[in-house]
Amino acid sequence: MEDYPNLAYQPLENATVQSILSSRLKEFKQKQSEHFSKSIYALTTVDDRVHGQLQERLEQAKRNYTEERIILIPYNLGNSHWIGLMIEFKINEEIDRAFFIDPVKNSNFKREKLQKLFSEIFPDTILRLRPVQHQVDQIQSARFISENLINAATSFELTEKEENIDNNYTLASLINQTIPATEAKTTTRPATEAETTTRPATKAETTTRPATEAKTATNQISLIRLVYWISIIFCVLIACLYFYDGQLPEKSSPTCTDGIKNYDETDIDCGGETCSEKCLPEQGCRSSSDCTSNNCDTKSKKCLKPKYKKWEQNAITVAGGNGYGQKLNQLDRPEGIFIDKNKNIFIADRWNHRIVEWKYNAKEGQIIAGGNGQGNRMNQLFHPTDVIVGQQSHSIIIADSGNRRVIRWLNQKQQILIDNTDCYGLATDTYGFLYVSDVLKNEVRRWKIGEYKNEGVVVAGGNGKGDQLNQLNRPGFIFVNEDQSVYVSDQDNHRVMKWRKGAKEGIVVAGGNGEGRNLDQLSVPQEIIVDHFGQIYVADCWNNRVMRCYEGKKVEIVVGGNGQGHLLNQLNCPRGLSFDGEGNLYVVDNSNHRIEKFLTIL
Question: If you placed Cys at 575, which of 49, 260, 389, 526 could pair as Cys (CB 3.0 to 4.6 Å)?
Answer without folding.
Answer: 526
